Amino acid sequence: MSKVFIRCAQVLVVAIVVVIVFYPLYQTLILSLRSSADIQEYITQVHSRGVRFIPVYLVPRAFSLEQYSEVFNDAFLRPYGVAIFYVMVITALHFPIAFVLGFIFAKVRFRGRNVLFFFFIASMVLPFHVTVVPLNQILHRLHLFNTPWAVILPGAFAPLGVFLFRQFINQVPDEILEAAAIDGAGLLRTLAAIVLPVIRSGLAVFFLLTITMQWSAIEHALAFVRNERWQPVSLWLRGVMASDPAQIFAPGILYALPMFIVVIIVAMRIKDGEIGSQLSV
User: Which of 103, 117, 96 shows the shortest CA–CA distance to 187?
Assistant: First the structure.
């Protein structure tokens, strides 16, 4: 009886967690499939003081793609494309920087390495508000303020990727690197032909975290970019939510779609057993 009770309790807890996590997204999807007039009515009901409970819908009252047809315009597609541009460029720059620094901190021995790594990683816990003034000054002096580089450079040199690669590369046996050096392999060949294949599972974790974090990032664009031409979709959604919440549902689903694709790809690799061992680092 106790085993049955524990099993039922586990299922109940998992079900509650799933509902809490996925209900907001599901409700957003349902609301995105209603007409704009219905959404305006819904928002009015929510804001009305006479409504004690927010209406809950399991299926759309009237199926409509009107919101999606309205959102495909330059006002949404431009920041959407800017966000994709930022993610691609930042990831392309961040990968070699983080990989090389991670290898140095993991395998290259020099005086003060651990102290330097400690201060480097300590920057991860600093709130953005603490660093905004120094970053602002640096970007102004380099004439990069209000340009795409004001978002790209802080993302490319983020410390999280360095930390992840150091942890994964630490698992590479030193004997393999020593054997490669004896065979005459240079540093670049060692990194590309030996280290990368060994930590290929960790690459999925790195790209997953980097892409998802940069896709939802808003602080640097909000603080350092005034030109609407270079503002990402996350900042655009913030403005729409403040001005007209009725227009947020279809863009919200389209905003979440790329991250679902990324997560599904990584989840399939985990299911195939390609990542499991590295996640224990």
Answer: 103
- 82 pLDDT more than 90: yes
Tokens representing 226? 């005034």
- Residue whose pair of structure tokens reads 């315009």 in the numeric block: 73
Show the domains of the chain with their CATH numbers: 2-64 (no CATH), 70-280 (1.10.3720.10)
pTM: 0.83
Tens digit of each residue's pLDDT (9 = 90 or more) over 238-254? 888 777 777 888 899 99
